[in-house]
């Protein structure tokens, strides 16, 4: 009889998605993000031209029906290069964020829940990593092992770990004193069980938000490193190398730098919207009360 | 046989000022299938006692001496793994604040299924058990309610869910740490009634901590009165409440608003403060605040038989007998 008044059971993920698409901000973010993902995955079929095929006679053109975003100094189609560049961006962003979340969760929860000396050790490690400016650190590593996509991924991941780790550590520390953790202990839960079943879901929400907001930063970093010539090697298209070319040729054509900037802006906006909306949705208490 | 038999338990906390002797030579027991209440004001060692029984003590706590015998086994000698196996199966606990005792981001069903991790049951069976327990504690429409989050329940319901979770494995001993303090008076009555019914059905021993004398009188078979880390009086609820043998118990009963018949503007209190547990005074622990203090109180009184099964730590009892 109460079936009508109670929401019908949905999985946790389904519940989050349901409320996410009802929030205009979340819906917009989701659409942008999905579009970027789709274009990256489907690049070989969407891109009208081969991104590295030279066509020198048609170089440095403005937008036209044949070339939606014009061509660069070697006559390569900019639109195709933007789409293929998205692949590089996500190839960097996803493993980076994934790795940073994994290690950040692991180290942060151990630091927050474990003994004091281990906490001090891990925090020292975090502070050491954070004391290097990311770009400088990247430059040093690239100078040692040479530029490659994997180097960029590794460097950005390592320097992102403390960001996640610290958030997880602080959340864990405040949660471990919570009465429900004591209550679970009194019902016989072991330490691994408390961490996996009770701490993890409480920490994961805020972390997902942090990750969604961090993706644009990582994409920007990759673009920056490629811009400095530390990232992907030419002729591989990336948004950073597009910007770099556009910067060099800004006197000849403004289209290159615009074409390189638009996807960066879109990614930032899309993931930020998604992150903001996620923040309201992942907490079951705030769910559906946003009123936006 | 007693489910729980505590003998000569002393627990201290190391503090910057020195050792705070929170429990000193505490002895008490919970007979099988009986409800024993512990009553005493804040800081009398009730919570320390529970944490020592279930072995979830603060990091700076140290057991000085004594035994905590649960069904004959000394819990203080068990390994951490053995203790964990007991918690939630043989001994379980209900906490004071029902708003804090559930994981806020997991549904009640998830949590109730998770605590059955030791059982070799299918998910559906675990869910069914959880549903049955919810029905048993009087949650209407338990099947749908399992999909809800703790914040969707009222405080009284959450406490009933906590009780359902604690009793899931039919423990031999339930420890209830002021389970009704955070609830309003009508809910308090209901929870007490429910607890009594469930105890009847499961037949477990219950250790019920409260500073509310009315609740103890209503629910418990026996009562243990604690003061400043010592047991000052034990006995059946009937005897202790009708003929308190210890001056502290008497003072405590006089302060209970439920007992006051004459209209008054000022509620009675016991003058003075709890002694400093780091620098303990010698002799009787209550001497400082006692109306009937005399020369003998300079020595620590032993528990003396004051009536049928009623014992109190006061010199007056032995003096009355010899006189």
Automatic annotation (TrEMBL), chain B:
Its EC number is 7.2.2.11. GO terms for molecular function: ABC-type nickel transporter activity; ATP binding; ATP hydrolysis activity. One of its GO terms (cellular component) is plasma membrane. It is a peripheral membrane protein. Keywords: ATP-binding, Cell membrane, Ion transport, Membrane, Nucleotide-binding, Translocase, Transport. Residues 6-253 form the ABC transporter domain. CDD domains: ABC_NikE_OppD_transporters. It is found in: Cell inner membrane. It comes from the Bacteria. Its main location: membrane. GO terms for biological process: peptide transport. It catalyses: Ni(2+)(out) + ATP + H2O = Ni(2+)(in) + ADP + phosphate + H(+). It holds the Pfam family oligo_HPY. It is an enzyme of class 7 (translocase). The complex is composed of two ATP-binding proteins (NikD and NikE), two transmembrane proteins (NikB and NikC) and a solute-binding protein (NikA). Belongs to the ABC transporter superfamily. This is Nickel import system ATP-binding protein NikD. It comes from Ruegeria sp. PrR005.
């Amino acid at each position: 009889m109460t079936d009508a008044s109670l929401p019908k059971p949905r999985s946790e993920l389904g519940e989050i998605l349901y409320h996410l698409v009802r929030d205009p901000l979340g819906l917009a973010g989701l659409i942008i993000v999905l579009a970027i993902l789709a274009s990256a995955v489907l690049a070989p079929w969407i891109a009208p031209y081969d991104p590295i095929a030279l066509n020198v006679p048609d170089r440095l053109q403005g937008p036209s029906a044949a070339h939606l975003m014009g061509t660069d100094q070697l006559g390569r189609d900019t639109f195709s290069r933007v789409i293929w560049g998205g692949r590089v961006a996500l190839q960097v962003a996803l493993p980076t964020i994934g790795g940073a979340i994994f290690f950040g969760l692991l180290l942060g929860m151990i630091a927050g829940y474990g003994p004091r000396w281990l906490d001090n050790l891990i925090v020292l490690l975090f502070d050491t990593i954070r004391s290097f400016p990311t770009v400088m650190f990247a430059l040093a590593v690239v100078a040692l092992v040479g530029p490659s996509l994997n180097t960029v991924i590794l460097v950005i991941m390592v320097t992102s770990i403390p960001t996640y780790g610290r958030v997880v550590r602080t959340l864990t520390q405040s949660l471990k004193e919570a009465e429900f953790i004591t209550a679970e202990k009194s019902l016989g839960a072991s330490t691994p069980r408390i961490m996996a079943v009770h701490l993890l879901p409480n920490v994961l929400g805020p972390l997902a938000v942090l990750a969604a907001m961090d993706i644009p930063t990582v994409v920007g970093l990759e673009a920056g490193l490629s811009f400095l010539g530390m990232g992907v090697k030419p002729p591989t298209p990336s948004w950073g190398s597009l910007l770099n070319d556009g910067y060099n040729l800004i006197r000849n054509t403004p289209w290159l730098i615009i074409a390189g900037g638009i996807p960066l802006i879109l990614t930032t906006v899309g993931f930020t919207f998604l992150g903001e909306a996620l923040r309201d949705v992942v907490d079951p208490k705030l769910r559906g009360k946003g009123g936006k | 046989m007693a489910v729980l038999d505590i003998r000569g338990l002393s627990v201290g906390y190391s503090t910057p000022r020195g050792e705070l002797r929170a429990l000193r030579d505490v002895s008490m027991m919970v007979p099988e299938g009986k409800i024993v209440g512990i009553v005493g004001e804040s800081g009398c060692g009730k919570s320390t006692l529970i944490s020592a029984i279930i072995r979830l003590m603060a990091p700076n706590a140290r057991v000085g001496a004594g035994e905590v015998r649960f069904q004959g086994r000394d819990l203080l000698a068990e390994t951490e793994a053995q203790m964990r196996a007991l918690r939630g199966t043989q001994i379980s606990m209900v906490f004071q604040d029902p708003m804090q005792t559930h994981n806020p981001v997991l549904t009640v069903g998830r949590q109730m299924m998770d605590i059955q991790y030791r059982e070799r049951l299918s998910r559906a069976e675990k869910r069914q058990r959880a549903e049955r327990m919810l029905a048993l504690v009087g949650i209407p429409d338990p099947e749908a309610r399992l999909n809800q989050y703790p914040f969707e329940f009222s405080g009284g319901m959450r406490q009933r869910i906590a009780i359902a979770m604690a009793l899931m494995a039919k423990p031999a001993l339930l420890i209830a740490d002021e389970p009704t303090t955070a609830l309003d008076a009508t809910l308090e009555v209901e929870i007490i009634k429910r607890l009594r019914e469930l105890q009847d059905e499961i037949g477990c021993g219950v250790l019920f901590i409260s500073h509310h004398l009315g609740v103890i009188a209503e629910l418990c078979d026996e009562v243990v009165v604690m003061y400043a880390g010592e047991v000052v009086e034990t006995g059946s609820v009937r005897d202790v409440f009708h003929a308190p043998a210890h001056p502290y118990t008497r003072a405590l009963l006089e302060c209970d608003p439920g007992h006051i018949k004459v209209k008054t503007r000022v509620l009675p209190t016991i003058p003075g403060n709890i002694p400093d547990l780091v620098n303990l005074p010698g002799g009787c622990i209550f001497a400082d605040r006692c109306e009937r203090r005399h020369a003998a109180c300079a020595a620590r009184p032993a528990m003396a038989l004051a009536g049928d099964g009623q014992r109190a730590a006061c010199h007056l009892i032995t003096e009355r007998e010899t006189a």
